[in-house]
Amino acid sequence: MSTSQLAKQKQQQKKSQANQPAQVSEVQDVKTSSSPAPTQASKVQPVKQQQQQQVPDVPEAKVSPLPVPTPVPTQVQKNVVPVVVSETTETEGGTTTKTYKEQLTEKTVDELLALQNENAKTVQKKTSENTLIAKELLHRLALSNRKSKNRNGKKKSNGNTGFIRPKDVPQKFVDFVNTHRIKYDVNDVKLHVRDGENVVLDESGNVTSLVDVDASGFIKLDNTKMYPRTLITHILYMYVNQNNLHAENAKYINANADLKKLLMMGKVEKDPVDKEGNPKKDKQGNLVGPFVGEDEVLEFTNFQIFVSRVYNEAEKAKATQAV
After folding, report:
1. Pairing of strands 219-220, 212-213
2. 11 burial via Cβ count (<10 Å: 0-12, 13-18, 19+)
3. Is residue 217 within 8 Å of 191, Cβ to Cβ?
4. In sequence order, what DSSP letters do the residues of 64-133 get, joined into one string?
5. Domain extent listing, the chain
6. Cα–Cα distance for residue pair 9/14, rounded to 1 Å
7. Peptide bond preceding 71: is omega within 30 degrees of 0, i.e. cis?
8. CA dihedral for 222, 226, 232, 234, sign (positive or negative)
């Protein structure tokens, strides 16, 4: 290229550079001259105004206050423990069934311990009662299952036997009871006529007594009547109780002179032995008296032995008279 052409290109480049700022200024003038763009707030405000104009006036509704919810107790609180509660239900058949359920109870530890101790005492009492019931049940079963014949092959009597069969009473017992004023107790069922476990009543609805009672309320025996030996023994027990003849040890009786004379108590003739014939000893291994030459001791456990003495003496005397 010639120098003249290069000079023309440079001039044209200078002209184009000089024209560019003018075009930018024109563009800026165009932007500033045009109306500014509406802001977001200016757009929302007319819309809200239109909505307020379109929504009709509605009267305010009366809103009742919400009920305050009652606080729900938590499932487990302080001093609240699960326990088993028994419920009894009577059925149509008359039996009683027990059901159990778990329930929460508000009791302190001391109250629960006291309740536990009380229940333990109740269980112990019921256990002892069940033991007595079991013994009585075995006795009843033994009576119901008795053989109809005795060891000799003879048919047993259907009437009362042994100590409960009425028999002649030694005159010693009759005189002792009639002279020592033993108070009659109308509530004592052992003094009443019974049919099994039931007390027999007379036509007026009163209990039928086994003994006679004088105008002062004391027991009287009739030597022309027969009485069970158990009745005579019970009347003698009443004499011991009414005259306070019990010793400190409950199994002993402090026999007075009249009772010793009636039961023919004297000196011991043989040392006491056990069932095997060995000298009788207590739990500590000490010999048990009274011994030979000492006064006989009356106990509730040997009371029948002394009563038998009087009956045996009366029978011997009757047999002697018959000969």
Report:
1. antiparallel
2. exposed
3. no
4. PPPPPPPPPPPSS-TTEEEEEEEEEEE-TTS-EEEEEEEEEEE--HHHHHHHHHHHHHHHHHHHHHHHHH
5. 164-244, 245-323
6. 9
7. no
8. negative
CA distance 207 to 193: 8
Q: Side chain identity at 148, as an amino acid letter?
A: S
d(CA 174, CA 221): 6
The answer for residues whose C-beta is within 8 angstroms of residue 207's C-beta and 6 or more apart is: 186, 192, 193, 199, 200, 201
Q: What is the pLDDT of residues 4-40, one digit of tens each?
A: 666 677 777 766 665 555 444 444 444 444 444 444 4
- pLDDT tens per residue across span 76-116: 444 444 555 555 666 666 666 565 555 555 678 888 888 88
Rounded average pLDDT over 220-237: 92
Cα–Cα distance measured from residue 275 to residue 306, given in angstroms and rounded to the nearest whole number = 19
Long-range contacts, 311-315 (Cβ 8 Å, 24+): 311/170, 311/229, 313/170, 313/264, 314/168, 314/170, 314/171, 314/172
User: For residue 205, what are its two tokens?
Assistant: 């609805």
